[in-house]
Fold this sequence. Notes:
Radius of gyration: 24 Å
Structural class: alpha/beta
Largest sheet: 5 strands, parallel
Oligomer: single chain
Amino acid sequence: MTNEIRYEELKLPNYINSREVFAGLNVSDLARAAVLGGLNLLIVGDTGTGKSQLASDIYRSWFGGNKNENGQGVFIRAHPDVDIYSDIFTNLNIDKFQRELTNNLESMIYYVDEINRAPPVAQNQFFGLGDGKMDYRGREVLLGRDGYHLLIATANLGNGEFRGTFDADKALYNRLHITLDLEHEALQPTYEDKNQIKKRIADPNVRLSEIGDISKKITEASKEIGRATEVLDLERVAILDYLETGLQNCQRYKVKDRIWPMGCQDCTFNKNGEALCSMIKSPTTRTMEVVRKYSAALEYLAKLKNPDIPITPDEFVFKAFELAGAYQHLLNPSHLREHYNHNPKLMREIVERLRQDYESQKDYILTSLEEAKNGRKLSKFFSHNKQLGNYDELNEESRKKMNPIEPFKDNREIGLGFVNELVDFTIKNNKQNS
């Protein structure tokens, strides 16, 4: 029996959301890709938006449900007194007067329902689930099996209507890699989806799917996705650097660091308050690792769904950044308030502007990187008949007729000085490998 997964096997028995997002992928596919990539998934939205239904379908039909019922998972309903160490990961051995580890540590999926109904102190317990390891008597114990573990959580994030919820720690959000906000207009089910749901027997509760287990195939898919991130083409490397290093740029203080966003308020480079550099800061290393893997997972699923689909690297990387970064405290709080704290909406608008900015510089970046592969450094251009050339290779007479173009500088909202370093690194790396 082959462990190669088919798209049809990733059917969700009850949750329906066919709203197209990009590259032939719909909202349900965004969740599928996170699971295939082994990336922790947070599903948020108002009550009744399908959060628990989506999580339950994945938990039961893909991972066989509860570990103590021959499945691969552990279900945890968060509440103020939750104690996963005592209730789930250890048992009391009365004869030895000590607690001993349970086989729940080997579960592949940990489903935490309403994660923000546990207070911040209790939420600290979930860090280990996000990291894939727990501490026990001074030693580190790995979670999951065969290199795979997944935390999937739901949460009500509202405008003060949910009295029994608590704020979540920034570090916990950072371990919840991908967030799908089902209240976001762009992620809501279509009209046809809603009518399809209405044709079923009415049931206000979460529908329990039949038990199924394709966890071995999911594990193999996750490994394949991981291998795809080991060697990236130069365009993917350039986009990732653009997001990580370019967003660190500050024309006023050189690097944003701790002065952002306060330093943006009276900045001469942000007169209208809409400069890109003022609206978003650089993501953490963990978030960039998520972007790298999630973009590969989205691409893997798009090809699985339609092998003939054309792949545009920037489309996948920017969409991965949009979904990974919306709740990672990257957005300027003042702009968030203007958007009624609707993170996905603001993130989507900003990422679209980032993509347009990258596209405006793409030809310079890729041309320079292609030259770097051949051991040549190109950082000063000229343009003639819509073709780019190396200004330094022109003779003296020709230089008088052409204006030099030097794009790789940081005197812009999103810095491009990193390209010079990337070019130098590419030349050096190719020499060492030749």
